[in-house]
């Protein structure tokens, strides 16, 4: 039987094999690209409840350290190695599976092709993939924090950009401070806004990206949370261009 999804997941399997045999940032980037742009999975599930209370329950496995993982398969053939009565399979994109996992704090990640490849995607890596996906959708430079990122002074004449960002941030109670730096990653240079925030990154980061792109004068623009370890180190000796005033 012709398995369309097995062919669609060919890039993913190539990246998985590259990660297992060689590793390194290049294969990691190919893995991210395959996941967010191409991958679709067979996900074992069963239906729980009755009537209006019926809902899907997806297969979960536990390792010796009591981490819990959703089980994903890249082909029908590999899915045959997971046989449980009363279970069927759902077809989920990586995005759908990721949001499902990130919505449940008990889930540590995915195990892809259990009983054959046994490739684990940990929760932090899944979060990084979603950030890259969101950045691409917003027209932002996809940034994944790592120690290879280089920081400089802001690129170009950044005064107007800082003023526009600060004007927006005065009305966004989620933003407590912001820094603007030049950055370089994987040979690409861009301006990076590192944002200290009290709640979720969205919708603040989406709005900051829109303002940044409007006033960047053609220089690529990206946003990073201050909560990333590398972000805190990058701004250690810098002054923010915006800080929320203290209210007594």
TrEMBL record:
It comes from the Bacteria. Residues 146-244 form the SseB protein C-terminal domain. Pfam families: SseB, SseB_C. Residues 30-118 form the SseB protein N-terminal domain. This is SseB protein N-terminal domain-containing protein. The lineage of its organism: Bacteria, Bacillati, Bacillota, Clostridia, Lachnospirales.
